[in-house]
Amino acid sequence: MYAKLAIAAAIAVSVGACAVQPYESGISGHSPANFNYKSDGENARALLAASESGKAQTWAVSESSYGAVSASGPAYPDRARRQCQPLKHERDGAARQVTACKGADGTWVVAEWVPDKGE
């Protein structure tokens, strides 16, 4: 009987812990990086558009939330035969080099590493 109560209590605590908001502010879009969902969406759209077209893309949500993405070199196939595009990625005043590669299924992967070029 006590074992069943202990198991039920453990399950109730586990379920309750899952329902707790991870951030105290309760603001929609709050994240540890302090970006809101609108800026994350605009950033993702700019990365995708620049990867697809190779043309510079900019976005701005507010004076403190803005960015730009531009090609930083020619597109090339990597060893896995994915089309890769080196990009200069700027967000809220910070810049970094990233590489976007498009898989056979059409999914883009953006990373800070550069895959080896094909031979």
UniProtKB/TrEMBL annotation:
Signal peptide start and end residues: 1-19
Keyword Signal in annotation: yes
UniProt keyword list: Signal
Name this protein carries in UniProt: Secreted protein
